[in-house]
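Q: For a teaching session next week I want to show students how multiple molecules come together into a single three-dimensional assembly. I've collected the sequence lines for a complex. Could you give me the predicted structure tokens for the whole thing so I can convert them for display?
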Amino acid sequence: MKRFAALFLAAVLPLAARADEGMWTFDNFPSAKVAKKYGFGPDAKWLSEAQLSSVRLAGGCSGSFVSPEGLVMTNHHCAHSCIEQLSTKEKDFVKEGFYAATLDQEVKCPEIELNQLVTISDVSKRMHSATQGLEGQKFAEAQRGEMARIEKECAGDDDKVRCDVVTLYHGGIYDLYKYKRFQDVRLVFAPELAIAFFGGDPDNFNFPRYDLDVSFVRAYEQDKPAKTDHYFKWSTTGAKDGDLTFVSGHPGGTDRELTLAQLKFQRDIALPEALFSLAEYRGALTMYTKLGAEQHRTAEAELFGVENSYKAFKGRYEALITETLWNDKAQREQKLRATVKKDRSMQKQYGAAWDMVAKAVDEYKPRRKEYQYIEGASPGRPSGFRSRYFTLAKTLVRAAEELGKPNEKRLPEFRDSNLPAVKQALFSAAPIYDEFETFRLGYSLIKLREELGADHPFVKKVLGKKSPQELATELIAGAKLKDLELRKKLWEGGKSAVDASDDAFVRLAKLTDPDARAVRKWHDEVIEPPEKKGAELIAKAKFQVEGTSNYPDATFTLRLSYGSVEGYEEKGRRVNPITVIGGAFERATGREPFALPKSWLVANQDGRINLGTPFDMATSNDIIGGNSGSPVFNKNLEVVGLIFDGNIQSLGGEYGFDPTVNRAISVCSPALLESLDRIYGAKRMVTELRAGASPAGLR
Amino acid sequence: MKRFAALFLAAVLPLAARADEGMWTFDNFPSAKVAKKYGFGPDAKWLSEAQLSSVRLAGGCSGSFVSPEGLVMTNHHCAHSCIEQLSTKEKDFVKEGFYAATLDQEVKCPEIELNQLVTISDVSKRMHSATQGLEGQKFAEAQRGEMARIEKECAGDDDKVRCDVVTLYHGGIYDLYKYKRFQDVRLVFAPELAIAFFGGDPDNFNFPRYDLDVSFVRAYEQDKPAKTDHYFKWSTTGAKDGDLTFVSGHPGGTDRELTLAQLKFQRDIALPEALFSLAEYRGALTMYTKLGAEQHRTAEAELFGVENSYKAFKGRYEALITETLWNDKAQREQKLRATVKKDRSMQKQYGAAWDMVAKAVDEYKPRRKEYQYIEGASPGRPSGFRSRYFTLAKTLVRAAEELGKPNEKRLPEFRDSNLPAVKQALFSAAPIYDEFETFRLGYSLIKLREELGADHPFVKKVLGKKSPQELATELIAGAKLKDLELRKKLWEGGKSAVDASDDAFVRLAKLTDPDARAVRKWHDEVIEPPEKKGAELIAKAKFQVEGTSNYPDATFTLRLSYGSVEGYEEKGRRVNPITVIGGAFERATGREPFALPKSWLVANQDGRINLGTPFDMATSNDIIGGNSGSPVFNKNLEVVGLIFDGNIQSLGGEYGFDPTVNRAISVCSPALLESLDRIYGAKRMVTELRAGASPAGLR
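A: Of course. Below is the structure for the complete assembly, covering every listed component.
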């Protein structure tokens, strides 16, 4: 799930992590607890093997090596953009599916980067001493500087290494995560969207489910399949009800430690506003995709992303308006604050933390829209400039300035450790569709004017007397950055080349950057430091009170969760945890999004499919957005499933885990094999998966 | 404003109605208080004249007689649907404006009904004794029955009389309002939309403003202009800063007396959900209007309504998440509850009221979507069947059943008192656009499936294996109700005719009506009675504690508010209360929605316009959605303005009035006359307005 993710909590959450709860770091996995409940506790070697067999897709997903030849299993929706980018007017791989019958038919994905976590080391001492006694802007600068230094020392100038200082427990612990980086990643297999997203938006986040949300890509090194000694073997039988299951992956983020003031801001402002914005864009975008086949092809990945975020945010919102969850959060905070207050030393160290955070939240409110619409924020969030051209131009304009600074003084996204990712995005050969660009830029300029107001100086500066649509059309007509060579020239030419450019978007980015930087600076120096510092103090207070027997909030770094194949109660009836392929044929109506692809209909007509094959399953693993593409595996490190979703109740996992109904949803390994073999005739892959055999032998 | 309306309350609201606050009934106007502040207090004769000169537009607006020949002034946006309905592909009056240079060029509006309030009489005793000691369903039935009897006794079978029992102070008082009804209403004048809605959605609910949101219609009786002895005279000079101003009109509804449980439901569920729904529909509808000129023409009135509701609901939402307002509401409720609790007799009578309401709210939550999507709710709210055809069919199907019952047993909308309105809507000659109908029905069916879930029995019953779009197309192809004669035949033929009809929508309405009735029955018998009864008990407790010196929540009945022309502070600067026509030319960009119409540009070029003429003004009158089209008049009963909006801060008026920033926005009478005279050359109207002279003399 790219799926940023809320749940209808029926019960009050107790204070400590319960049965099956937790997105654990690999260096603090509660093996003894798992062994006690399930009769098996992972040892160090097992954990290391699972860690090295797992990969992150830098764009926001998870995956796993499933052969010694670099074959990676992930979701269709994680590779959707790539599949769309490789398609043309004439050949639509999203609609028709993709299969490289031979190795040399595997095609490079322009924008996929894989990260394999190699080592974890504790750098808390260095980080804490670098910021000791500092506040506000100085705190932020010192923190950023020390992070940049540590990362630089770790990675040097090696593009193949990625080093990130990871903030865990909101600054209670800082770890250095060292990754091996793969940037040559090629598409091997993807089914038709009709089955990869069967049930479409109506079934998204629902269960029972019938969905083959899979794609396979392959990591390459020096133009050859990467040698990957660590990989998950394949279970042809899969898992059954009650079996112990593990999920390794990269949950994008949870907010289980937010203060009440922050939660209130989420509930009353941030989530509703994101939803208003997404809902309207969804309506417009849906209509855009209906204008014609080409519009559909070029915009459907964006629509999928928008619908997915919309549903996920709505789930979160629903969790926050649930009284039981809210009251539980309030009680926990009051209890911790009371405990801190009673101890004079703790009160002195941590007592001010909550008000510090609340003040930052209050200060953020009146300028939040300027921050979002002028500087632009996270994906799925509102923005004044929805445009690939603008993103490219802004990168060039900022790089020209930032790269002249010492590493530790740069904006974090331009630190050396992140440059390979910046360059991959900047020099991506992914097509740009001018008509779609015009639509979404024009749309976002209207929202810019609406949200900041027609009289806002920035709006006047950007629009002048032009209408949003008119400006968008004019900008696209003057856009030159489709030319990859020009982008390279501007990147290499630095500030003088960028200043001399007459590209319409470079000019726009230059015009707007002072305003964007000003509001960014305010956010990074006035708002963020007290929020971070407050969170760190609260985390430390918790350590002191509760010990370190808990897991940290998710941070898009590798985590391991445990659980089992398990049904649940919904609206008074028991939901069985495993569906079978035959169910898909029963559910099919022949109409989108419930129309099965021709390949499935034909295979069924021919009697080739075993309809009793387990298809999708629900497990009690604690996961969230970012876990999309994660392997589900058994105690023998064999793949039994492929995470692609959570049920609707799991969305509240953002704020807390309810073991009675929160379920992870995966495709069962038997369904994957059955369909590759009997529906798609992908013999090369079947052999590779079954044997871990070299794909070279299969050409 | 059709505009359902929220404000950023800076200050805590005290308990009693303050300076300029209040939407007062004509029989309880605080003349002494006004006299004390402004040196003038209306007497009975003055009040009667103002009452009889005011009219209601049954569709949701206000207006006033401005000549003895039935000439009525209202907003352009109140007649927008009519103007659109009178337009054709060839002649677009919305875009080009409309002016009947002679009386016989005035054209009938298919759906406008005017109501002139003639008498008010207190029927509280009858109503209270009819429901004494009853609860739940019995309470609701008794109440409905007694209302129907009173209305019937009052109006008899006279179509020209409309009698409504009006619930004031949530049942503290019941009044019988007797109206004279006009159903032959003809369009006289409307300017181009470009000036009637100058600044469009970006400027909507904003001030300073430059907007000529006016239209004139005329009431007819027996095919001749109605003789209207009571009417407002015209002030050619208008009002100046500080002048006392009155506004009479029909504020649609306020929620100033909701309990905390109800407010919480509004804040967390009702408003956000309505906004999610409106936002998405807005996005889709905007794209629809861009498909072509014809799509634009046929859908822009709906888009305007959606954008207006969206902004109004957002304002309300923002008021509810304002801590000061929330805390004030909480304190008031706690204080009243504490006072009640201290007095044994009061506690016995009223003590249970708040929990009664809270329980009803809780019970409503889990089935709210079924109620909304299956039975359909108020305008601007979500619905599963956005379709004029479906609305007509549902009316026919229900009428066939309801009209066979005694008056007091019918659903309220089919009581004799309401039949003229039902018939006017049913037999309206307004065009139906099949392409637009297909679009919005398909859209709403998708939402029906999304909100209730693909597996909901009702969804399965409606859709079967069809896609929403497919079903919509099929239904429209089988729609026959465009034929007015057929509608009449089905209405007159009753149940047997309706049962025999093969019209696709009649069949759909028959198919869905049992489900719709079931959920309606649940709502009307289980949810509404305790909410109403609780509100009535709380109102009585308030009477007992505070006396009757207050005004009731708005109920789309005639109210009078007082105030003055007054500026306010916004973002640290003073906003002047009056703009001038020259400002429009400064603000114009030549691009929609800031493009002035050609008539204005030419008149300005020719030097015909006095640019210093007062254009729009802000007054401190307490108004809300439904007051659109209200006259603003001085102590001499002369029109000085025409309400068309409130500022953004006024939207919180739903829940409370903040005198420092809440402002009503109107067009100044001099701008109306100046533009009619010098821009539009509407000499006939200028003479009629100036003189109250017979329009017959002006042919």
